[in-house]
């Protein structure tokens, strides 16, 4: 696990534009080195702003979109197309506007999927998808970039303080009774987050100052889950000024 580096930006707009530019170079570098690249998306306002900034950036054409795998760090367990799903936001902001290979876009299951409204079966299904894409002996791919929003309560993905998913050692867990609606969710667990080469924590606004502080301090992830978000090669906290004061 790597120690975090903080990069502070004037405001959310500059943060989103810079993260989008960083995504371009990181994906292009990965495709050059390994033939393809993989990213893990997050929901939330900042994560979606990054995707919109990427869609608007001329440099996006440097990415070979057909050789990119797209995964999600967590999902609200709702029907396909529900505006509250992270998948829906990501498609609207970016994926509908670039020539991704639909077979390489891996949304977490929805309640109208093959497992119906059973979040445990849906979590197991996503874990099987990840295992199929992972190298020999691994349960999840070595994601090139995994982005995470952070909540005022210091949650990342759908790993909320004090909840059982924090200590689940399966790659993917279901979450019931989440403190933030909707209550039922699916999330990557810490071992999966930490398989990523680069973890980027995105935080904007004064309500994120305390979680950013806790995340950088590296305290107990069961109280401040953001403190457990670390990449194998790099951990970046991409924040704006308000989130550092
Ligand atoms: O599933 C959710 O409820 C959200 O996706 C949530 O996890 C979000 O990512 C963070 O709360 C950061 O949100 P902002 O970027 O909007 O501050």
UniProtKB/TrEMBL annotation:
Signal peptide: none annotated. It catalyses: 6-phospho-D-glucono-1,5-lactone + H2O = 6-phospho-D-gluconate + H(+). Belongs to the glucosamine/galactosamine-6-phosphate isomerase family. 6-phosphogluconolactonase subfamily. Residues 11-235 form the Glucosamine/galactosamine-6-phosphate isomerase domain. Hydrolysis of 6-phosphogluconolactone to 6-phosphogluconate. Its EC number is 3.1.1.31. It holds the Pfam family Glucosamine_iso. Keywords: Hydrolase. Pathway: Carbohydrate degradation; pentose phosphate pathway; D-ribulose 5-phosphate from D-glucose 6-phosphate (oxidative stage): step 2/3. Gene3D superfamilies: 3.40.50.1360. InterPro entries: 6-phosphogluconolactonase_DevB, 6PGL, Glc/Gal-6P_isomerase, NagB/RpiA_transferase-like. This is 6-phosphogluconolactonase. The keyword Hydrolase applies. The keyword Hydrolase applies.
């Amino acid at each position: 696990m790597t120690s975090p580096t903080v990069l502070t930006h004037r405001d959310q707009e500059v943060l989103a534009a810079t993260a989008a530019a960083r995504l371009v170079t990181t994906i292009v570098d990965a495709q050059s080195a390994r033939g393809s690249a993989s990213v893990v998306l997050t929901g939330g306002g900042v994560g979606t702003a990054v995707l919109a900034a990427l869609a608007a950036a001329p440099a996006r054409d440097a990415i070979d979109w057909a050789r990119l795998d797209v995964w999600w760090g967590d999902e609200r367990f709702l029907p396909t197309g529900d505006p509250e799903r992270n998948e829906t936001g990501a498609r609207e902001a970016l994926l509908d506007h670039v020539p991704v290979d639909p077979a390489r876009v891996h949304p977490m299951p929805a309640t109208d999927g093959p497992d119906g409204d059973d979040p445990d079966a849906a979590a197991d299904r996503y874990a099987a998808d990840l295992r199929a894409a992972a190298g020999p002996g691994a349960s999840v791919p070595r994601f090139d970039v995994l982005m995470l929003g952070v909540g005022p309560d210091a949650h990342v993905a759908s790993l909320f303080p004090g909840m059982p998913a924090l200590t689940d050692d399966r790659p993917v867990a279901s979450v019931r009774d989440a403190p933030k609606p909707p209550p039922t969710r699916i999330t990557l667990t810490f071992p999966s987050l930490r398989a990523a080469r680069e973890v980027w924590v995105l935080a904007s606004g004064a309500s994120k100052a305390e979680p950013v502080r806790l995340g950088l301090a590296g305290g107990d992830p069961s109280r401040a889950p953001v403190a457990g978000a670390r990449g194998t090669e790099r951990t970046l906290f991409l924040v704006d000024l308000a989130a550092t004061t």
